[in-house]
Inverse folding.
């Protein structure tokens, strides 16, 4: 008991230090009453922090198919995919996903974090076996799961300035004579800034300098590109990762690429090999989402218009929504305590918009990260537009 008490003291000291610097997190439960409405502490709030960009989490088609497949096949897959966890439905969803993404093959994984951390690690280990450590060119603001994949493989990253493809090219030129396979790792839409990578130029650079491309499309899939197929659609990208937990309204992740790539991952990716297969209900929601998404162009257009409007509101208040060009709109505040006050003001006005603070974002990079949804009504968008200036004044104290 004394040993455990010693560690409790360490834990509590660390928690107190976080609280002193306004970066301690606590769990605050909500009950979802719709795709963009919740109840917290007995109050109804409009949710502007959810990644449910198309409102599909409450779409009847997803709920119906999830329930149907659950009742027909049970609550769990029972084993990993390589044991007895693979069903005909897993393979059918992967085939539908590959068609949607315009790829030869697809592979389902449990979560986006797990996919990036384990798929990238497996890829880098294979590259290292070719005689020299791989050269990994990574955007410096890549998601933590991508950094974890590099660390798990013991590979040092060559980081280029955020979304600066001129800098990337200069690094490719600088290391042109170095041994090792070249791998470029980035995201198509960045989750904290809402900005986009120029995928066409990225693909061209990769072809010019003989690099493999790994692109995380978690925040673009369903929302951007033709029929919501993502920004990589129509471009030569070797591996595309994405999730079902955002615009596709469910849970789980995937990678798409060549048949050889996916077949190799079945044998080499620890996050696939050692994880129980996705359960039937999850598969049903995936299947229905892939069926629905190509037909939601009007929803995507409304989402883009609402995002543009809110960016104008933020600019009009003298704040910065840059560099966002998507449904993710940051309100840059800098100070963590101010970001918490801003969020509290919005909540008092009936809106849920979480303050994002270090270490999720860089020091002095605290912000309100607005995540808009096609399910937000004009009235909700108007309520947000009115609430932002008041929150600005109240948080300045």
């Amino acid at each position: 008991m004394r040993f455990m008490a010693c560690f409790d003291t360490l834990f509590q000291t660390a928690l107190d230090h976080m609280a002193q610097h306004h970066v301690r997190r606590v769990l605050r439960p909500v009950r979802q009453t719709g795709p963009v409405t919740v109840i917290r502490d007995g109050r109804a709030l409009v949710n502007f922090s959810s990644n449910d960009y198309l409102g599909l989490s409450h779409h009847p088609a997803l709920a119906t198919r999830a329930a149907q497949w659950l009742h027909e096949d049970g609550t769990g897959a029972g084993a990993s995919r390589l044991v007895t966890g693979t069903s005909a439905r897993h393979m059918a969803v992967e085939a539908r996903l590959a068609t949607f993404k315009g790829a030869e093959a697809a592979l389902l994984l449990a979560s986006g974090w797990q996919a990036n951390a384990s798929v990238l690690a497996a890829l880098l280990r294979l590259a290292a076996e070719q005689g020299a450590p791989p050269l990994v060119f990574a955007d410096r603001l890549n998601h933590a799961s991508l950094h974890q994949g590099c660390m798990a493989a013991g590979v040092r990253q060559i980081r280029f300035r955020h979304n600066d493809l001129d800098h990337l090219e200069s690094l490719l030129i600088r290391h042109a004579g170095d041994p090792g396979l070249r791998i470029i790792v980035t995201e198509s839409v960045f989750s904290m800034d809402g900005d986009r990578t120029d995928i066409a130029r990225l693909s061209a650079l990769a072809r010019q300098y003989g690099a493999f491309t790994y692109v995380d499309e978690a925040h673009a899939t369903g929302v951007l590109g033709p029929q919501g197929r993502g920004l990589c659609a129509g471009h030569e990208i070797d591996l595309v990762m994405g999730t079902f937990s955002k615009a596709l309204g469910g849970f789980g992740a995937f990678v798409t690429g060549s048949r050889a790539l996916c077949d190799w991952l079945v044998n080499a990716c620890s996050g696939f090999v050692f994880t129980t297969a996705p359960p039937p209900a999850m598969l049903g929601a995936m299947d229905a989402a892939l069926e629905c998404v190509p037909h939601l162009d009007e929803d995507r257009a409304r989402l883009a218009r609402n995002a543009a409007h809110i960016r104008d509101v933020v600019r009009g208040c003298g704040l910065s929504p840059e560099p966002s060009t998507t449904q993710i709109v940051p309100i840059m505040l800098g100070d963590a305590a101010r970001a918490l006050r801003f969020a509290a003001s919005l909540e008092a006005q009936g809106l849920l918009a979480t303050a994002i603070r270090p270490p999720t974002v860089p020091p002095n990079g605290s912000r309100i990260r607005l995540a808009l949804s096609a399910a937000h009504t004009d009235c909700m968008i108007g309520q947000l537009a009115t609430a932002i200036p008041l929150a600005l004044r109240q948080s300045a104290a």
About this structure: Residues 33 and 250 are 16 Å apart (CA to CA). The longest strand covers residues 328-334. The mean pLDDT is 96. The longest helix spans residues 297-316.
